[in-house]
Amino acid sequence: MPVRPPFIDAHVHLWDLDHIRYPWLTPPFADDGPNGSVAAIARDYLLDDYLADASGWDVRGVVHVDAGAEPADALKETDWLQATADARGMPNGIIAFAALDHPDIEHHLAAQAARPNVRGIRQIVNWHPDPRRTYTPRDLTIDDRWAAGFARLRTHGLSFDLQAYPGQFPPLAAMMAHQPAIPVIINHIGMMVGAAGRDEWRLGMAALAALPHVSVKISGIGFAFRPWTMEQARTYVLETIDLFGAERVMFASDFPTDKLFGGFDQHLDAYDMIVADFSDDERRAMFAGNANRIYRLGVAL
């Protein structure tokens, strides 16, 4: 097996539960939600905890993605992360939360963009008719006010991390085609929702892959398959690379959330093994170079 390449982790979460409230990490916990029970990760997860989990990898940088804090604490979370970055050098990039349908979205985007390490925004918009799968009570992505908030990202030079389901992708692609200056990064390999949805997944991913300003992060296979297998991972990873090309794919840990579905090395070694036959340049791009470029991190590789 090839030597592990340098790694920029494109999707990490940190939290201090005494400092900021995270409703989804607050009891009581249930098994029937999109993540299953999250009791196992409902404890502080700080930078040193992440670095311990990732100790077998040459981690050159990390991108922190909105971790589901109470919406009123979104800027407080960003400031905590920025202070960590100022003191420790990581996270190198911050993807903050803002509700794009908020009446005062301009104020929220301006405040987040003023923090040095903020590179983009994520608002989870997974809507599904199955109440066990949906994250939102309605599909925000077909709301005109949400689309108007999305367009405001361009004014602030912000990207958008897209966590949605494949059935939402074709209309999103039509909307995002009119905003080529806003980089879009699909989260968690497109959130496929099981084998029955594979055709819908490929159709939705193809619609977004047709847009050159859209890229994708490979992580979170356990959202769809519990437990996941190497063959399931191989199928979706290789199809994703086929759709987007190696230059628009980033590997990510999604830790500690993906800890619910397996260990750090279990996930990353699986991805590494799947692309073992790719060229060294392609492997280095997918594990570090693409994240460095797409998130504008300026990390020495």
**Percent range of helical residues:** 25-40%
Rg from Cα: 18 Å
Estimate the mean pLDDT confidence: 95
Largest sheet: 8 strands, parallel
The count of strands amounts to 8
What is the string of helix and strand elements? EHEHEHEHEHEHEHEHH
Task: List the uncertain runs.
Answer: none
Strand content: 5-15%
What structural category characterises the helix and strand content?
Answer: alpha/beta
Distance between the termini: 21 Å
Question: What does the oligomeric state look like here?
Answer: single chain
Q: Count of helices?
A: 9
- Tertiary shape: globular
Strand order, biggest sheet?
1-2-3-4-5-6-7-8
Features:
single chain; 301 residues; alpha/beta; 8-stranded parallel beta sheet; 34% helix; globular
Question: Please, could you describe this protein's structure?
Answer:
The protein is of the alpha/beta class. Helices cover 34% and strands 13% of the residues. It is built from nine helices and eight strands. Strands 1-2-3-4-5-6-7-8 form an eight-stranded parallel beta sheet.
Task: Please outline the helices and strands.
Elements: E1 7-12, H1 47-53, E2 59-65, H2 74-88, E3 93-97, H3 105-113, E4 118-122, H4 144-152, E5 159-162, H5 169-176, E6 184-186, H6 198-209, E7 214-218, H7 230-244, E8 249-251, H8 264-274, H9 280-294
Parallel strand pairs: 1-2, 2-3, 3-4, 4-5, 5-6, 6-7, 7-8
A few lines on this structure:
The protein is of the alpha/beta class. The chain is built from 9 helices and 8 strands. The relative contact order is 0.16.
